[in-house]
Each structure stands twice: as structure tokens, then as C-alpha cells.
Design goal:
Rossmann fold; 3 domains; five-stranded parallel sheet; Cyclic_di-GMP/3'3'-cGAMP_PDE; HD_GYP_dom; transmembrane; transmembrane helix; phosphoric diester hydrolase activity
């Protein structure tokens, strides 16, 4: 026993070492080049999105991160030295892909002359210059242009400040700010009745002083405003937002989520975290060793407002977009203690239920023990009778529907294999193999002329054909025994869709029995690969694509994944039971 355990331990250790070696052998090296410094909130969130996305990758991705810090320093001498630094550091370093954030980094990359940076999979994001490209650096580049909500925010400002006469546009002279300004001025030209006051050449203190005396009926649009180049000063977004919003007599609108600080009102905002995740998702598919990234989808509302600012400026929530997200709402007593109330109520309810159930269980226990042997005997007899009946009915359906050949036999075997990957027990798989051939038993009640029709069914004919689900259910459910009733459920539900668009009852998700979901996939998979009186057989590539597109729509997404990941085994079952004839 000891020797056997030692052998098992050694084998496991060897397998673990092999996996580590294999993982390191396919590690991808990616260089991230940020335009700004690590303390810049926009860049922080971008990097957080990149790093979090990498955590979900199925293979290692090693990051090298560089920050140009162009908002602090942007002299030609600095960029020349930075180019020398990167050339020296990475000239002999293996790079598999590049991530570029914002306009400065993209321009800088196009000026670099490093052979190992050329023609690599490259993703650039947060780019405001729509004329920018990667053509001089790589043929494998993707640019995610930053599309700020300029139009939407201007419409929002006019709606929330109907008496506005002046819009104060606060910005610095950075590259990103200058690019954004061009787009803004083009859109603002549609508002000739509003005077635009650009605040660009003043420092933070002067700007806050100016805004402290403006008309409260006007509005402020805070854009890129971090750098006072003449004073060699850089302000973080948090400080900028707090100082300006607390001083301003008019509400402050913004276009980025990191500005939602202090008394900033809000607006239609972009969030760089999701942009960072999107960059990794795109690059992962283009790397020499492709990586699969699994991310939790997150629905982020673009319009976000702060409750305190709404109250401060007397703005009704009814004027906001219907999907607006309101931050920092005051929490009621019930909401604040909801978890405690829910837990306490649940505990009391459970205790009462336990008391009732215990009394019932104790009463019934003696009766159940006495009847156990008799029930087991009857169950065995019933099971044998039901299996025999189902086999006879399955054979009759297969004989009548001549075009299916061995279809029902294959559906049974395919269902068992899929049930195995889904984690069903051996007994459950046995039951499924017995009853899945009955999914189309209701076709007994469909006229032969419809079953054998080679052209598209008319509306009335299709309605009649759909009735085979209910016919099968009524035929089977009236019989005694669990197996027959499970077969009836499959007959009724095997054309229901995961998204609720199937028939006959429009059931969805896990409201459809697991047996029905499995049988539906097995039935469609075999039908698509089979030649029928009304169609030719599909190529396996088309079938695979059909299930990919139908995952989460027509089919259970987890079951679809099991099918696609083990497609060769399912195809092998078809070869084992080939069609002998068809109509």
C-alpha cells in the first residue's frame, strides 16, 4: 500500500513539473507603453483593466510596463533620451506584442527604430486623433479610437440648464486636449446662442477663482486639465475635480468617470478600465501563442451623476436619462440593514419550517420503512415494463419516419455522452438513453404528407408539425411511472430555446428540463449532419459554427461548450450508426 501511494505521488509530481515547463514554454511577453505617468487616474484604470484581464488568461502573459509621462515633460530632449533608454533596454529582448495607450505613446512608437518592435501584434487605445495609424510600425495593428460623448453631453447641458448663456470650457494645452478641442468646437458650432468661454491659459487657482463668480444658470465642461507647463506643475484628476467643482457656482459636467469627485455633477462618461480589458481581449487572439481570456461582462451605464451635486443645483432626477446611474445616494434604514433583516427573517422561517417538517417526517418514517421492500419490487417491475414500451414505440417512430434512418439510436447515444460531460449520474444517463428516442413520438399524429414533404412547409402545415410536441406529451404523460413522464417532458420541451424563443410554451433557461436541453442538442446535431428529404447534410464546420452562434440563444451555453470541446467523440457516434436509407 505504501509503495503504491509513493508511486502515485511521484507520478503526480512529474505531471505537475511537466505542466509548469509547458506553461513557461508558451509564455507571451507584452510591452505596455503608456503616454502618462503611473499616478494618472486614467492610466491607472487602464493598467488595472489590463492586469485584471491577464489574470483570467489560460496561459501566462508577462508584462513590461513603461510610462512616458508626457503630461509632466514633453521636450524634444526628453523624448530623445527616452528613445535611447528604450532602445538600450529592449534591443535584445523578445517582445511578442505591444499595448499602446493614448496619442503620445502612439506617436512615440512610430518614431522608434527598434527591429524587435516592428510588425508585432499591436493594440493602441484611447486615441483621439482619428488620422493616427500604425502602418509605419506594423501590419498587425488595431486602434481603438476614443469616442468621447461630446454631442450627448452638449445636449444634456442644454436640457439640464435651459437658461444657459455661457459654457465654460476648461482644458490644458496637452496633445490629447488639443485633439479633443477640435471635435468639441465642431459640435459646439450647432449652438450659436451659447457663448463659449475657453479657460486654457490659467492655473488651477486662477481657474477656480474665475468659476466662483459665474452665473449659476450657466455650466462648466471640465476636460483635460492637469498640466501647468509654464509652472512645471501637474495636478491629479481628483484634486482638479474637487477644487474646480467646489469653487464653481455652476454645475460641472465631465466626460470621464475618474472626474466624479467633489461636487462634480457628472454626464456621459468613458471609463478606461473597460478599455484596458478590451485591449487584452483583442491582443490575446493575435499573439504568437494565442491566449483565451475569460471576462465577466459588465454593463456600465454611460450617464453617471452624483446625488449631492444634483441636490446642490436643484436638478430633478426626472430630467436625467432613463438609464442614468446616480452615485452616493443616501441609504435608508431598511436598505442599510437589509442583510441583517433578511438573515433574521430567513432563520426564523427556516426554524419554523424545520419544526413542521420534523413532525411530518417522524410520522411518515415508520410507514415508509414498512413499504420500502414492496416499493422497490414494484419499481423494478415498472421500470422494465416502461423500458420495453419505450423501445417498441421508438422503433415504430423510426420505421414510420423513414428519412431519419438510425437517427433516434444516435440521439440516444449522443445524449448519453453529453450527459456524461454535464455531470449526470450513471442512473440518470441510463434513464436518458432509454427515453430520448421518444422525443419525436408525437409525429405519430402528424399526416404522412407533411412528414415526407420535400419543400418548405406552409404556415398551416408548420402549425400542424409543431403540434407533435403536445401530441407526444399527451401520449406519454398519461402512462404510469416516472420514466414515461420524463419521456413526456422531453417530447414536450425538446424544441424549447434557451432564450425563450422556442415552442410550444416559450420556456427558457433552466426552466427547461436538463434531459430536454441535452436531447435538443443531440437531436439538432444529428439532424444537421444527416441528409433529409428536404435538405442536404451540413459540413461539420457549418455545424460547429451553428452551435457557437446558437450557444446561449437556442442552446444551453454550458452544454454547447461540452459538445464543441469534444466534437470528435460526437462525430464518431454518427459513424458508428450510419444512415441506411432516407426518403
Amino acid at each position: 500500500m505504501l509503495i503504491k501511494a509513493l508511486k502515485s505521488f511521484c507520478m503526480g509530481l512529474v505531471m505537475l513539473v511537466c505542466q509548469v515547463i509547458e506553461a513557461s514554454a508558451v509564455e507571451n511577453h507584452v510591452l505596455v507603453l503608456h503616454s502618462y505617468n503611473a499616478g494618472y487616474e486614467w492610466t491607472q484604470e487602464l493598467q488595472n483593466g489590463i492586469s485584471d484581464a491577464i489574470q483570467s488568461a489560460d496561459r501566462p502573459i508577462h508584462l513590461s510596463v513603461e510610462y512616458i509621462d508626457s503630461k509632466r515633460v514633453n521636450s524634444p530632449e526628453y523624448f530623445a533620451r527616452l528613445q535611447d533608454y528604450l532602445s538600450t533596454k529592449y534591443q535584445n529582448y523578445q517582445i511578442d506584442g505591444l499595448l499602446i495607450t493614448d496619442d503620445y505613446a502612439l506617436r512615440f512608437l512610430n518614431q522608434l527604430n527598434l527591429n524587435n518592435f516592428k510588425n508585432l501584434p499591436t493594440v493602441a487605445a484611447g486615441i483621439n486623433d482619428f488620422k493616427a495609424s500604425l502602418h509605419t510600425t506594423t501590419s498587425k495593428g488595431t486602434i481603438l479610437y476614443e469616442r468621447d460623448y461630446i454631442k450627448q453631453n452638449l445636449q444634456l447641458i442644454v436640457k439640464l440648464r435651459p437658461a444657459i448663456k455661457r459654457l465654460y470650457y476648461v482644458a490644458d494645452n496637452s496633445l490629447s486636449s488639443n485633439v479633443l478641442r477640435k471635435s468639441f468646437l465642431e459640435e459646439f458650432s450647432h449652438y450659436p446662442n451659447i457663448e463659449l468661454i475657453e479657460v486654457r491659459d490659467q492655473d488651477l487657482q486662477e481657474t477656480s477663482h474665475l468659476l466662483s463668480s459665474i452665473d449659476e444658470k450657466d455650466a462648466v465642461l471640465l476636460t483635460h486639465f492637469n498640466t501647468e507647463i509654464k509652472n512645471n506643475i501637474y495636478h491629479g484628476y481628483t484634486k482638479t475635480a474637487e477644487v474646480i467643482s467646489l469653487a464653481s457656482k455652476a454645475p460641472v459636467f465631465v466626460m470621464w468617470g475618474f472626474y466624479l469627485k467633489g461636487d462634480v455633477l457628472g454626464g456621459y462618461v468613458n471609463r478606461s478600465y473597460m478599455l484596458g480589458q478590451q485591449m487584452i481581449t483583442i491582443l490575446s487572439k493575435q499573439l504568437p501563442n494565442p491566449v483565451r481570456v475569460t471576462l465577466q461582462s459588465e454593463n456600465l451605464n454611460p450617464s453617471v451623476f452624483q446625488f449631492g451635486a444634483l441636490q446642490k443645483f436643484g436638478i430633478s432626477q426626472e430630467l436625467l436619462p432613463s438609464d442614468a446611474l446616480i452615485l452616493n445616494k443616501p441609504v435608508s434604514f431598511f436598505t442599510r440593514n437589509f442583510a441583517l433583516i433578511l438573515i433574521s427573517g430567513s432563520i426564523i422561517s427556516v426554524l419554523l419550517l424545520i419544526i413542521v417538517l420534523l413532525g411530518f417526517v417522524l410520522k411518515r418514517k415508520k410507514e415508509i420503512i414498512k413499504k420500502d421492500k414492496k416499493i422497490l419490487t414494484l419499481q423494478g417491475q415498472t421500470m422494465r415494463v416502461q423500458k420495453s414500451l419505450i423501445h417498441v414505440l421508438g422503433e415504430s417512430i423510426e420505421t414510420r419516419s423513414g428519412e431519419t434512418g438510425n437517427h433516434v439510436r444516435r440521439v440516444a447515444k449522443l445524449s448519453v455522452l453529453l450527459a456524461k460531460y454535464a455531470g449526470l449520474s450513471h442512473r440518470e444517463r441510463d434513464i436518458l438513453e432509454t427515453i430520448s428516442p421518444m422525443h419525436d413520438v408525437g409525429k405519430i399524429g402528424i399526416p404522412e404528407v407533411i412528414l415526407s414533404k420535400t419543400t418548405k412547409l406552409s404556415s398551416n402545415e408548420w402549425t400542424l408539425m409543431q403540434n407533435h410536441c403536445r401530441i407526444g406529451y399527451k401520449l406519454l404523460y398519461g402512462n404510469e411511472g416516472d420514466i414515461m413522464r420524463l419521456a413526456a417532458i422531453i417530447a414536450l420541451e425538446h424544441h424549447e430555446y434557451w432564450n425563450g424563443c422556442g415552442y410550444p410554451d416559450g420556456k427558457s433557461g433552466e426552466g427547461i428540463h436538463i434531459y430536454s436541453r441535452i436531447t435538443a442538442i443531440a437531436d439538432v446535431f444529428d439532424a444537421l449532419l444527416s441528409k433529409r428529404c428536404y435538405k442536404e447534410s451540413w459540413p461539420i464546420q457549418d455545424v460547429v459554427e451553428y452551435f457557437r452562434s446558437g450557444s446561449g440563444q437556442q442552446f444551453d451555453p454550458k452544454l454547447s461548450q461540452y459538445l464543441l470541446e469534444n466534437i470528435e467523440q460526437f462525430v464518431a457516434i454518427r459513424h458508428q450508426y450510419p444512415d441506411e436509407h432516407y426518403r
